[in-house]
Amino acid sequence: MKPFNFIKAAGGTQTVKQKKRTGRFIAGGTNLVDLMKKHIEQPEELIDISGSVPASIGKKAAGIRIGAMARNSVVATNPDIIAAYPLLSKAILAGASPQIRNMASTGGNMLQRTRCPYFYDPTLPCNKRNPGTGCSALTGDNRMSAIVGWSENCVAVHPSDMCVALAALDANVIITGKDQLTKTIPFKNFHRLPGNTPEQDNNLPADALITAVEIPGNAFQKNCFYLKLRDRDSYAFALISVAAALHLNGTTIVSARLASGGVAHKPWRWYSVEQFLEGKQANAQVFQQAATLVQKEIKTLPHNVYKATMLQGAIEVALQNCLNA
Ligand SMILES: Cc1cc2nc3c(=O)[nH]c(=O)nc-3n(C[C@H](O)[C@H](O)[C@H](O)COP(=O)(O)OP(=O)(O)OC[C@H]3O[C@@H](n4cnc5c(N)ncnc54)[C@H](O)[C@@H]3O)c2cc1C
Ligand code: SF4
Predict the structure, then answer these.
(1) Residue 258 within a domain
(2) CA 108 to centroid of ligand 1, rounded, Å
(3) Which residues form the pocket of ligand 1, taking CB atoms under 6 Å from any ligand atom?
(4) Contact present, 240 and 229 (Cβ < 8 Å)
(5) CATH number reported for the structural domain that contains residue 270 in this entry
(6) 80 to each of 37, 60, 85, 223, how far by Cα in Å?
(7) Which domain holds residue 279?
(8) Does the first or last residue of the chain, that is N or C, have fewer Cβ atoms within 10 Å of its Cβ?
(9) Based on the structure, what is the number of domains in the chain?
(10) What is the dihedral of CA 141, 142, 145, 146, to 10 degrees?
(11) Ligand 2 centroid – CA 268 distance (Å)
């Protein structure tokens, strides 16, 4: 690992002033330190934000605010989150391991980098790690790669479980920019597709600090489910995940939310399926019809054709489980 300075964040808006382009904020360190060990990240300075960026979780008039330093385990077990946003709790608990969730922060989880194996292997071309060198996964092992929204420059997927629920719940990301001004980025615009600049995972401005995530109130408490399909039952990233939530009036679907992980460079909302479901009866036949709609959006790669069938089945099962939640 390359030597680096380690300093404590000054706190407040001073923290963003402290950060140089060659420095990095460090929260739980569960992704950044691994990247530093592999020389993929080589910051000259680490700014420890653990004591200064908010870690509190507080109700607001129109929802809830989660501090960016709130640890994943704390968010998942918070009584207000469990009561009003059980989908978020379920998604977080499907990720990583208890030890990692104890360290991982809300902001760091959103900014964790892809798990594409070529990204972690500096001996092989990777446009995300080294722009312009090519995408090894496009013609190599793309079994875990994207099936929607990819470009020939990058077929990686975003690895987070938590973010799939935040996408489904229409969260907002609160940031402080280098200009020390507070801005809000709708979650759906936070992560990005690879296009011609796969080195950029998201739309967070350079040197900006995430301070919190806000989630509006919703009516999805009773009928929601997070389904994660993976190679082993724990400590593995999603091949496919589905965050599903239904607001029911009797057996009629008033509104639906459906998002997936393991399918794209960003958490992916299935808007066409949500629209199809609204106003329909919540039953197996409708869920089966709804799940087929995703096929129109999918473009598989040679080694991940299986994901098309797996996704359709996962959506059906997740919707059905919303009724048994
Ligand atoms: C073995 C293993 C298995 C895992 N399995 C899963 C899984 O199944 N599902 C899943 O979702 N995740 C999984 N993870 C990933 C884990 O959830 C992330 O590593 C973690 O959420 C990152 O949070 P952190 O606080 O440790 O971030 P850090 O490593 O501290 O930081 C990550 C990045 O975010 C930046 N950053 C952090 N906080 C802020 C902020 N407030 N503002 C601006 N920049 C910031 C840092 O500069 C860095 O670039 C796994 C990790 C490991 C090691
Ligand atoms: S998919 Fe993206 S991260 Fe993976 S090798 Fe291609 S460019 Fe790199």
Answers:
(1) yes
(2) 4
(3) 24-32, 49, 53, 68, 95-96, 100, 103-105, 107-109, 111-112, 159-162, 209-210, 235, 237
(4) yes
(5) 3.30.390.50
(6) 37, 11, 8, 17
(7) 223-324
(8) N
(9) 1
(10) 160
(11) 18
For 143-157, b/e burial (b = at least 16 CB within 10 A) is: bbbbbbbbbebbbbb
In sequence order, what are the beta bridge partners of 259? 243, 269
Burial 299-320 (b: 16+ CB within 10 A, else e): ebbeebeebbebbbbbbbbbbb
pLDDT digits (tens, 9 = 90+) for 141-196: 999 999 999 999 999 999 999 999 999 999 999 999 999 999 999 999 999 999 99
Residue 81 forms part of a structural domain: no
- Say what the pLDDT of residue 156 is: 98
The residue behind tokens 């958490």 is 267
Q: Which two tokens stand for residue 210?
A: 């995430």
Domain annotation covers residue 115: no
**Taking the chain (325 residues) in consecutive chunks of 10 residues, what is each chunk's mean pLDDT?**
95 92 97 97 97 96 96 98 98 97 98 98 97 98 98 98 98 96 98 98 97 98 98 93 98 98 98 98 98 98 98 98 91
Q: How far is the CA of 45 from the centre of ligand 2 (A)?
A: 26
